[in-house]
Amino acid sequence: MKQRTLAGRQVSAIGLGAMPLSMNNDKKYPSFEDAVATVHAALDAGVTLIDTADIYAPDGEEMGHNERIVAEALRRWDGDASSIFVATKGGITLGEDGSKGRDGSHAYLRSAVERSVEIFGVDHIELYQYHRPDRTRVYADVMRGLKSLQDDGLVRAIGISNASVEEIQIALDVLGEGNLASVQNEFSPKHPGSIDELRFCADHDIAFLPWSPLGGTGGGASSVGDRFSVFREVGEAHGVSPQQAVLAWELALDPHVIPIPGARRAASITDSAKAADLALTTDEVTRLSESVGIFD
Ligand SMILES: NC(=O)c1ccc[n+]([C@@H]2O[C@H](COP(=O)([O-])OP(=O)(O)OC[C@H]3O[C@@H](n4cnc5c(N)ncnc54)[C@H](OP(=O)(O)O)[C@@H]3O)[C@@H](O)[C@H]2O)c1
Prior knowledge:
Layout: E1 3-6, E2 9-12, E3 16-17, H1 32-44, E4 49-51, H2 65-76, E5 85-90, E6 92-94, E7 100-102, H3 106-120, E8 125-130, H4 139-151, E9 155-161, H5 165-175, E10 182-186, H6 195-203, E11 207-211, H7 224-227, H8 229-238, H9 242-253, H10 266-273, H11 282-291
Parallel strand pairs: 3-4, 4-5, 5-8, 8-9, 9-10, 10-11
Antiparallel strand pairs: 1-2, 6-7
Helix pairs in contact: 1-2, 1-10, 3-4, 4-5, 8-9
Bound molecules: NADP nicotinamide-adenine-dinucleotide phosphate.
């Protein structure tokens, strides 16, 4: 599979978003064994990047549900698990009553990353992403806290998620050019609005990871070819699914883009992974971009 650069390492151009295995809009979850099988299908298809988060868990479950699936899948996989790049996230809290909040304090993020380190049985996290801004705190202070986790060796690379251009700039100011590995924002035909952040990342050599790249669980991803017919037409011209056309289009926007499609079924990620090697023509990319309102 074609490769892209993330935090100085080569990873598959298509990653696996592990969230739907533990959290999705349909509230339908695979068994633990089926979830592990889906992760294995991704790895067997050549996917070497997995995105997870401490907060991904079904209602009523504890933090770390999704991380535990990924960790166990890596332990059981018969390939070289050390070649797999795992990115996780922290900064969203789960109350005893199931309510969610945000905490970007140094103390909280340290305890969160320590919990993730323990689940994965490693001494550091390859890429730790600040999940969503805690609006009660100064963004630069949060970045300083993340930097201290890196200085202490708990995380190798730092990413941010759900960040505006202004917040990306603040992260760069605090961490230094070259030390912000990634930005993970929602981006898809349904949600093309993050094109500004995507372009900013491209200009600053930062990987951009579109989340819900197909339109999300709950029907957005499965119906993308119906809702955005140009993607279905381009897919048909290549004899592939509209989902592959969407992911290939995102990859064609810039070499810094690394989509992380989610999957509960092995068949979904096996199909999506093929998008890495699907070459669209320049005319097709322009047509797809313009169909969702993106112009040069
Ligand atoms: N940073 C954040 O705040 C944030 C927020 C949301 C998500 N994320 C990340 O982004 C990842 C992806 O987002 P997402 O899972 O919400 O949405 P998505 O990737 O747009 O859609 C996932 C759904 O697409 C279906 N699918 C995937 N490939 C397919 C294919 N080739 N053909 C047909 N259906 C296909 C899957 O179906 P099946 O389930 O039936 O396999 C899955 O339910 C998440 O897993 C998570 O890692 C991050």
